[in-house]
Amino acid sequence: MKFCWCTITVSNLEESVKFYEEIVGISVNKRLSIPNGEIIFLGDGETKIELVYNTENKGVQVGNNISLGFEVKSVEDKIDFVNKKGIKVEAGPIQPTPQIKFFFIKDPNGVKIQFVEHL
């Protein structure tokens, strides 16, 4: 079995696309029109995210215990980058073992994003 993608229902499609392109570093792969909205796939290879926007959806619900993890070369560099973009670090940096370090931010819809450095 192969993991296909993670679907996120969004309240503002363009704001979410901008976040995942500029902050996470994955780009739009495909755009699809649907009744009352649009679907955008970002990423290629193993990392894919599906953003779904529907004009009839009045609120987005996000679970607190789910996060999406993305590998970075340097946690410190990524923290500096997100700080310069005005994004609040929600937690971290955390180093639970000598081999890994990470921190969390939130996307525009409240989804926790984890940036991970393997040491």
Automatic annotation (TrEMBL):
SUPFAM superfamilies from the UniProt entry = Glyoxalase/Bleomycin resistance protein/Dihydroxybiphenyl dioxygenase
Q: Sorted alphabetically, which Pfam families does this protein's record hold?
A: Glyoxalase (PF00903)
Q: What region holds the VOC domain?
A: 2-118
MF terms in GO:
lyase activity
- Keyword Coiled coil assigned to the entry: answer is no
Which InterPro entries does the protein's record reference? Fosfomycin_Res_Enzymes, Glyas_Bleomycin-R_OHBP_Dase, Glyas_Fos-R_dOase_dom, VOC_core
Listed A to Z, the keywords are: Lyase
Give the signal sequence positions.
none
What name has this protein been given in UniProt? Lactoylglutathione lyase
Q: Which organism is it from?
A: Natranaerovirga hydrolytica
Q: What is the lineage of its organism?
A: Bacteria, Bacillati, Bacillota, Clostridia, Lachnospirales
